[in-house]
């Protein structure tokens, strides 16, 4: 690569990110004004975002007005799964883009009145790299780490952990079978994001669900 090319790529990327930050700030203002709590979820593919979210939406549906947006490169599969909870769900299909951005969220919300919602969940595209740079205007960004994917993920993908507010260890029912080393996982999370709160859940058995659900609407 010639020295002249490198700065230009950085410049374009910075401009795109700046534009996203401006729109995210605007979205955050709209969410605050409408008093909607927005919780986003990021993780590697298959860590259990949709499974946890379906259980969460079902639990919250009787107590508050809740909805969800879900991003994937292709298919409406996750939206179909989440709609089983009975709450409004919109799929954002990103094509080749490996993350959601603030414009996609804003467009997906165009037909909904924020005033009619208490909690909005956003499931990001399954990816531990791309979503970390894109603020979506959320109040709480949650990073999931499943008990089956390896305790080293926080060290290998520090930015996604560093830009999250809460870590949730998922699939704890499989921890013994996967020989999940809990102490190492906690140590690695704290190394990249000192002080970050960590919860443990199993969407299959329901373990830890009460503490998780409380966090989603109270902070
Ligand atoms: N044993 C067990 N399996 C789980 C749990 N949560 C999710 N799974 C399984 O893990 C697989 C992936 O779960 P999904 O919820 O689709 O994961 P995801 O993060 O939404 O995946 P992408 O949207 O593709 O990134 C499915 O086979 C789920 O049944 C859990 O708590 N325990
Ligand atoms: Mg999913």
How does this model look, in words?
The chain is an alpha/beta fold and 219 residues long. Helices cover 39% and strands 18% of the residues. The protein contains eight helices and seven strands, in the order H-E-H-E-H-E-H-E-E-H-H-E-H-E-H. The protein has helices at residues 5-34, 49-60, 77-83, 102-108, 153-156, 158-162, 182-192, 209-218, and strands at 37-42, 66-72, 89-93, 119-123, 140-146, 166-170, 197-200. A seven-stranded parallel β-sheet has the order 3-2-4-1-5-6-7, with helices on both faces. Helix 2 runs parallel beside helix 3. The model has no long low-confidence stretch (mean pLDDT 94).
Question: Which helices and strands appear, and what pairs or packs with what?
Answer:
Elements: H1 5-34, E1 37-42, H2 49-60, E2 66-72, H3 77-83, E3 89-93, H4 102-108, E4 119-123, E5 140-146, H5 153-156, H6 158-162, E6 166-170, H7 182-192, E7 197-200, H8 209-218
Bound molecules: guanosine-5'-triphosphate and magnesium ion.
Magnesium ion (MG) is lined by residues 49-50, 78, 123.
Feature tags:
219 residues; alpha/beta; 7-stranded parallel sheet; binds guanosine-5'-triphosphate
Straight-line N-to-C gap: 46 Å
Integer average pLDDT: 94
- Biggest sheet descriptor: 7 strands, parallel
> Which strand-content bin applies to the residues?
15-25%
Order of helices and strands: HEHEHEHEEHHEHEH
């Amino acid at each position: 690569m010639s020295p002249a090319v490198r700065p230009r790529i950085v410049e374009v990327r910075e401009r795109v990110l700046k534009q996203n930050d401006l729109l995210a700030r605007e979205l955050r203002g709209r969410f605050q004004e409408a008093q909607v709590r927005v919780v986003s979820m990021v993780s590697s593919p298959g860590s259990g975002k949709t499974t946890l979210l379906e259980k969460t939406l079902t639990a919250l549906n009787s107590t508050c007005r809740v909805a969800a947006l879900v991003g994937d490169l292709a298919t409406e599969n996750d939206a179909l799964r989440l709609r089983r909870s009975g709450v409004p769900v919109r799929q954002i299909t990103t094509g080749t883009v490996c993350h959601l951005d603030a414009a996609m969220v804003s467009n997906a919300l165009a037909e909904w009145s924020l005033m009619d919602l208490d909690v909005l969940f956003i499931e990001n595209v399954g990816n531990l790299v791309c979503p970390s740079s894109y603020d979506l205007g959320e109040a709480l960004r949650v990073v999931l780490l499943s008990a089956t994917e390896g305790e080293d993920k926080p060290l290998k993908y520090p930015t996604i952990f560093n830009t999250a507010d809460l870590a949730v260890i998922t699939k704890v029912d499989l921890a013994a079978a996967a020989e999940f080393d809990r102490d190492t996982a906690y140590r690695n999370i704290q190394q990249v994001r000192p002080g970050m709160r960590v919860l443990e859940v199993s969407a299959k058995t329901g373990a830890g669900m009460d503490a998780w659900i409380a966090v989603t609407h109270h902070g």
